[in-house]
Amino acid sequence: MNGKKGQIIFYSLMVGVVVFIVALALASPITDSIGSVMNETSGDLVGLNCTSTDSNFIKATCVVTDITPFYFIGFLLFLAGAIVTAKWMVG
Questions:
Q1: CA 25 to CA 38: how far, in whole Å?
Q2: Are 77 and 17 in contact (CB under 8 A)?
Q3: 30 with 80: CB under 8 angstroms?
Q4: Distance between CA atoms of 10 and 91, rounded to whole angstroms?
């Protein structure tokens, strides 16, 4: 590897690792906050009460809220992988 290409690969590797670490760091707080949103209302926290609801709209909101962390963290991990491998694939 000569000069600039080697620097770009090293830089993209560093940025990709940072995005990967951020994704792993955000996984637990996002999952905890989604869990508290889906629970019953308690105190100042207004919850969806997903366990015992008859409304189809709330059920749909609970399903979308439940799968959101998977897609968000998955997107960040995909982005980290794309950043790391982009410069190696270009040539």
A1: 21
A2: no
A3: no
A4: 14
Q: Are 87 and 41 in contact (CB under 8 A)?
A: no
Structure tokens at 36: 């508290």
pTM: 0.79
Distance of CA 7 to CAs 13, 83, 84, Å? 10, 14, 13
Q: Are 38 and 47 in contact (CB under 8 A)?
A: yes
In angstroms, the CA 3 to CA 63 distance is 50
Alpha carbons 51 and 48: distance in angstroms, whole number: 9
Q: How confident is the model at residue 91 (pLDDT cuts 50, 70, 90)?
A: low
Tokens standing for 75? 């997107």
Is 60 exceeded by the pLDDT of residue 68?
yes
pLDDT (tens digit, 9 = 90+) per residue, 27-67? 999 999 998 888 888 788 778 888 887 889 989 999 999 99
